[in-house]
Design a protein that fits this description.
There is one protein chain. It is built from 6 helices and 2 strands, in the order αββααααα. With 166 residues, the chain is mainly α. Helix 3 packs across helix 4 and helix 4 crosses helix 5. It is globular.
Length: 166
């Protein structure tokens, strides 16, 4: 369920950037216009744990979370893949829900990240895919689109490692 929610968030972000509306400046937040206080949002792809419930990192109990909160792992992966880790936390082995590390990742850009996720979703993922399967699917998609030794393939592997999916 978390991957389903993550897919919605990833493509919702893609649409937001594509629409480029002055009424809702494109960003990696969802539902920020619902709140009157600046800086609040229903979900953040850059740091899902900002809501106090979502997971930035995969850990053994993530499957027991509500799907809206377990989606944070895929959301954080996508953000790190597309934007990199400058100014953003990554996960370290042994961490639980909240990212505290500082690995340096170079993003490949939103469009490439979106293409990889779309191909993985339409060619490799099934209704039973878990986060480990999503890692394998996105690596296969990156290979299909850019090559097995490409910077994009390596970025996919690094972004999954940065959210503890190995």
């Amino acid at each position: 369920g978390g991957l389903n929610e993550s897919t919605s968030d990833i493509f919702g972000t893609a649409v937001e950037f594509y629409a480029n509306s002055a009424r809702d400046t494109p960003d990696f937040f969802f539902g920020e216009q619902v709140f009157k206080s600046a800086g609040l949002a229903i979900r953040s792809l850059a740091q899902p744990s900002l809501d106090g419930l979502s997971a930035d990192c995969w850990y053994a109990a993530v499957g027991g979370l509500d799907v809206h909160y377990s989606s944070g792992v895929g959301n954080h992966f996508h953000y790190l893949l597309s934007q990199g880790s400058a100014g953003n936390k990554t996960c370290r082995a042994g961490d639980t829900r909240v990212a505290t590390g500082s690995a340096t990742l170079t993003g490949i850009g939103r469009q490439k990240a979106e293409k990889i996720w779309y191909r993985a979703l339409t060619v490799y993922m099934t209704s039973g895919t878990n986060y480990a399967g999503a890692r394998a699917a996105t690596l296969s998609a990156a290979t299909d689109l850019y090559g097995a030794a490409s910077a994009e393939y390596l970025a996919v592997a690094a972004a999954w490692a940065a959210v503890n999916v190995n």
